[in-house]
Amino acid sequence: MGLGITIDHTLLTPAEAAKKESMYKSHAFEEYVSELIPLNRSLPDFRGDWCKANYDHLVDTLPSVSIIICFYNEAWSTLLRSVHSVIDRTPPHLIKEVLLIDDSSSYSHLGQRLDDYIQKTWPPENGNQGKVKLIRQPNRSGLMRSRMRGIREAAKDTVLLFLDSHIEATEGWIEPMLARIKEDPKVN
Questions:
Q1: Of 49, 50, 79, 155, which residue is most buried, by most CB within 10 angstroms?
Q2: Alpha-carbon Rg for the chain in angstroms
């Protein structure tokens, strides 16, 4: 249920303690703990009654979205938990695609392992590429150029939505944003 995980450090073997420390140094957060959390964990619905009453009934009228997530050397668990949470907690007809823009990562887990995971988890459907598309920058280009690449690759008839590579979406996260865009497509 999205509860936190506490680690009793006295129970870690020296090898586990070293791994935990190395993971922390690599990403500057408790990646060791993140790896213990399921990628598709359930989370409570934090929305209030007002939000549910004002947006839930609009879901069938909202525009579709291309979600662009740029990353560079992201931790495995956070990147995939981001994608799983977005897909699992968004009405399927609202997501046209999720574009993962890899800004020339050097970590091995973001190479073939990521390609294979995406292919297996979100396979092509009806001759079309799967819902999640991985686009690799040939050279490190930075966040803004990676976002621009995402814009060029995105479906042309969708709302473009940029997310960080280490987020976790909850129920009803997208409806208020899309409702506001539907109401005024030029909203800032």
A1: 79
A2: 18
Burial of 79 per CB tally in 10 Å (0-12, 13-18, 19+): buried
pLDDT (0 to 100) of residue 19: 83
Whole-angstrom distance, CA of residue 156 vs CA of residue 161: 13
Give the number of other CB atoms < 10 A from CB of residue 92. 8
Sign of CA dihedral 2, 160, 164, 180: negative
Task: For residue 99, give the nearest of 66, 127, 136 by alpha carbon.
Answer: 66
d(CA 73, CA 105): 5
CA-CA distance, 125 to 132, in Å (whole number)?
11
Q: Which of 173, 97, 109 is nearest to 135 (CA)?
A: 97
The amino acid occupying position 132 is V
Plot region of 12 (φ>0 → left; ψ -120 to 50 → alpha; else → beta): beta
SS3 annotation, 42-97 = CCCCCCCHHHHHHHHHHHHHCCCEEEEEEECCCCHHHHHHHHHHHHHCCCHHHEEE
pTM as predicted: 0.88
